[in-house]
Amino acid sequence: MSSPLDSESLRAQAGPYFGEFGGRFVPESLVAALDELTSEYALARQDPAFAAELTELHRSYTGRPSIITEVPRFAAHAGGARIILKREDLNHTGSHKINNVLGQALLTKRIGKTRVIAETGAGQHGVATATAAALFGLDCVVYMGEVDTERQALNVARMRLLGAEVVSVTTGSRTLKDAINEAMRDWVTNVETTNYIFGTVAGPHPFPAMVRDFQKIIGEEARQQVLDLTGRLPDAVTACVGGGSNAMGIFHAFLDDPDVALYGYEAGGEGAETLRHAATITKGRPGILHGARSFLLQDEDGQTVESHSISAGLDYPGVGPEHSWLASIGRATYLPVTDAEAMSALRLLSRTEGIIPAIESAHALAGTLDLGKKLGPDATILVNLSGRGDKDMETAGRYFDLLDKGAEQL
Amino acid sequence: MSNSAVTGNPATGNPAARHPAAGGSTVEATIARRRSEGGGALIGYLPVGFPTLSESIDAAVALADNGVDILELGLPYTDPVMDGPVIQAATQRALANGFRLRHGIEAVAAITAQVDVPVLVMTYWNPIVQYGVDRFADDLLAAGGAGLITPDLIPDDSADWVAASERTGLDRVFLAAPSSSDARLKQAVEASRGFVYAVSTMGITGARGDVDSAARILIDRLRAAGSTSACVGLGISTPEQVREILGYADGAIVGSALVKALSDGGVPAVAALARELAAGAREIRPAS
Predict the structure, then answer these.
(1) Which residues are named in the active-site annotation (chain B) (predicted)?
(2) What is the C-alpha end-to-end distance of chain A, expressed in Å?
């Protein structure tokens, strides 16, 4: 496992607080489960057998290490900067989500619980959890907002095929935020038998630190891979940010490299200046949602405001507390990318490199196109390609009018 | 303390009268009085703004007029993770009708102007943080409110609220759960003032056929942790359940059943249910 870090290291944050962000704002009923998770996770981290089992799963099941791919034809549209993709889209189940899920599923087994629940937006975390539940023989219930079960219908079918029960959540905004509320209600009720496999670096402690730890393998691999390929560190690392797990996963290894700039791209929806976006750090202010203090889209009274994004996975009015902290100390920069910019980048990567990204990841690509022009042709930018676009073909098909008239529109 | 923004008539008079230094928690005193009379306290929950602001005030007044000893006014919130479908539906409707936090303060003032039972506010924590913890405490006190029940604030993360409630003398009701360790129960007992809210079962709000035997065990454990004021909530809907719980606890909290009555039959229905429930709360044991 990783070597001890001195307390000056930005990588040494273990929660519950990251600066003023984080904490445990939860019903008392959940505290015992969070305490158990915290202590079991601490024991697991010290246990070489746990690490060995996870490493073996990464190798023989997920397909780690994931490769990096340099994309010169795409980079020609970014002012000629050198652009390298970290290919989390090639993982089993199609995104980075499996990294975290396998860790938490192993932890579930270790604690001795037999049922897992999860929330999902785009369905990637739900699919990964259903997959791990199938692999480990656990009962699995996935909560998904009704809006998302419609726009990500294929992932609903995947989860059910894997044996999970998918519950369509019809309360509130009927998206990821409400799926999390419903999963928390389930957990409060069934905590004795059930572990909540949380999908992102948000939520109450220990989730932000634990999920980051399970995702940081992305950056650890990529940092060495870029060094091997180019002989130096990248000038910038970019990722999309919804809750922020893929971004924390790739940022973490670079936090103590002050010359590496970190950029998180939030969902700007129809424009961060409109009311229809999910640009939490750009437009929100600190508040409490889902158990943690972090940036939040909210009204004057602290009521959560509904977010909007073409990408279900980024359509969330909160963000992980470590991102809020990195923004507040200026270590990472967070910028909005609109639906239109993301979709344009999605098509560009598909056409220039033969790689169809998830709409979520396309936000990082769109931001990188801009960043490349700013940094110039000598710069190297590492992009976390967090997921593949198969699940988005219906949305993309409609968006680009590909479904009826076919290839002639291309 | 300020009298900002409160338009209602704080008819309960000098707020300092309820400061611990000047007589202690009225909530605790009310519970103790009911116990000494051979019963226990009946605590009734309704959300502010459902079905309308004025009807919610009328319904709360009707609870007090029909034997409810302590009112628990819920502030509607977009993400109520402790609430089941009945209360969720009511609070979502209140939000859709334009509920604002200041309506909560106005409702407390309007209710305390009409009846003299203690009024606690039940609220998720983010709205209070955004309003300003100190500002909310001042405005609640000025409106005649007794304190806060905080379902998603645990003592560990409550320094701001402890400071504000110490300053104002407002009650702090924290939750205790069957899953809480002995150390955490002790912490809840020591951090709370007014009462400790004992969660009857692992779960969320909503009527249940049986109130879990876990509630009795939890109350025993809270007694061992030093509690002299412990009330049971979650799943209580009938006079029989109230009577059973008050056999061992100091108070019984009814929520979803009252909300459902209000939803189905308006203020008359909620008044009738309160009367029935209150009958269950009296003369359980000989007066002491």
Answers:
(1) 72 (proton acceptor), 83 (proton acceptor)
(2) 48
Give dist(CA A97, CA A89) in Å, integer. Answer: 10
Quote the pLDDT of residue A405.
63
Q: How far is CA A239 from CA A88, A99, A168, in A?
A: 11, 16, 29
Looking at residue B113, what is its pLDDT? 98
Q: Domain A62-94+216-409 falls in which CATH fold? A: Rossmann fold (3.40.50)
Q: Do B184 and A188 touch (CB under 8 A)?
A: no
DSSP three-state, residue B182: helix
- For B137, the domain range is 26-204+212-277
Nearest C-alpha of chain B: how many angstroms from A24?
7
Residues of B in contact with A302 (CB under 8 A): 77, 101, 126-131
pLDDT tens figures, A310-326: 999 999 999 999 999 99
Contact A191 B202 (CB under 8 A): yes
Chain B residues with CB under 8 Å of a chain A CB are 77-82, 84, 88, 92, 95, 100-101, 125-131, 151-154, 156-157, 174-181, 184, 188, 199, 202-204
CB of A287 less than 8 A from some CB of B: yes
pLDDT tens digits, B148-203:
999 999 999 999 999 999 999 999 999 999 999 999 999 999 999 999 999 988 88
Within a domain: residue B287? no
- Is the pLDDT at B98 greater than 50, yes or no? yes
Q: Is the pLDDT of residue A170 over 90?
A: yes
Instruction: Indicate if ipTM > 0.95.
Output: no
* Nearest Cα to Cα of residue A91 among A384, A354, A397: A384
Interface size between A and B, measured as CB pairs under 8 A? 112
Q: Where in chain A is the domain with CATH 3.40.50.1100?
A: 15-41+96-211, 62-94+216-409
Residues of A with Cβ-Cβ distance to B181 under 8 angstroms: 32, 35
